[in-house]
Amino acid sequence: MKKLSFVIPVYNEEGNLPVLYEKLKAICDHFAQKYSFEILLVDDGSTDSSWQIIKELVSKDSRVRGFSFSRNFGFQMTLTAAYDHAQGDAIIGLDADLQDPPELIYEMIERWEQGFYIVYARRSSRNDGFVKDFTASLYYKLLHYVADVPIPQNVGDFRLIDKRVLQQVRLCRERARYLRGIVAWTGFKHTYVEFKRPERVAGVSGYSWLKLFKLAFDGVTAFSLFPLRIAAFVGVFVIFTGSLMFAYIAFDAFVHGARYPLFKWLVTVVYIFMGVQFLLMWLLGEYIGRIYDQQKNRPLYIIQESIGKGFEEK
Questions:
Q1: Residue 160's beta-bridge partner residues?
Q2: What's the rounded Cα separation, in Å, for the pair 15 and 271?
Q3: Alpha-carbon gap, residue 90 to 71, rounded angstroms
């Protein structure tokens, strides 16, 4: 009998965990004659009673396994830890806030049974407000245009991956993690199931605008050299416009006898080039900083406590 793993990052989700568990339990019971299941709940340093609730779920259901971090390491690290410890033939990752509707998992499993190695849940609509919806749509279009590998648009971390995909994902240990891109980078046969993203049932999102920006920036820099190319385009543009400026001044001075206070133009050009240099230094420093961070070789996360049947720390 094949096993399916549900992997769920948790951060201050005390109001959602009991509801989520009941929905996942219904799925497990539905497929009980066909598959065995495990439910991995990863507490990312929650400050509410989420870890206590996870302990209660483990005590009453042997299919539930849980572990907590020593502090908040972020969603991508939490999902990475869950992937590292998942034992299923297929792994289904979803948020604990119920905005990834568990009811969609029935169709995802069906697509997996049809031979697809990756099944993405693609959002046909969102309920996150106009600004967030607009910026998300704009970002995905930009990422699709600049990324070196095709990265699906309007998909989050709600997906099913086969264990063959998981084996390759585990080999990717970069610290600036963008799992949506890493999974797409593997290139396995994939498909989509569509859904309308519902509103959060309880609690507040753990993703602030700053965290969303960092995730978006990680996605662009991890899978594209486009930021470096922007610097090149800006440099060429400045040199080109500066050359036109000096050509015009020289022509006007020698042909028409016009007199220009050249120091004003020089100061302007130097100022522009200083801005370009700062931009280049920032971009170069960002990449060098990531190389430095990677070479530290620190663990991606630290497990403080683990509970559940058959759990082995890695």
A1: 92, 119
A2: 55
A3: 28
pLDDT tens, residue by residue, 55-76: 999 999 999 999 999 999 988 8
Is residue 37 classed as helix, strand or coil in its secondary structure? strand
Over residues 239-263, the pLDDT tens digits come to 777 777 777 777 877 788 777 777 7
- What pTM, to 2 d.p., does this model score? 0.73
At residue 192's C-alpha, the angle toward residues 189 and 92, to 5°, is 80
Q: How confident is the model at residue 292 (pLDDT cuts 50, 70, 90)?
A: low
Between residues 132 and 184, the one the model is more confident about = 184
Give the C-alpha separation, 123 to 104, whole Å: 12
What is the band of 49 on the pLDDT scale with cuts at 50, 70, 90?
Answer: very high
Is 5 buried (19+), middle (13-18) or exposed (0-12) by CB count in 10 A? buried
| Strand order across the 155-162 sheet | 190-196, 118-125, 155-162, 90-93, 2-10, 35-43, 64-69, 303-307
Residue 209: helix, strand or coil by DSSP? helix
Q: Are strands 155-162 and 118-125 parallel, antiparallel or unpaired?
A: antiparallel
Q: Coil, strand or helix: which one is 68?
A: strand
DSSP annotation string for 129-183: -HHHHHHHHHHHHHHHHH-SS---TTEEEEEEEEHHHHHHHHH---SS--HHHHH
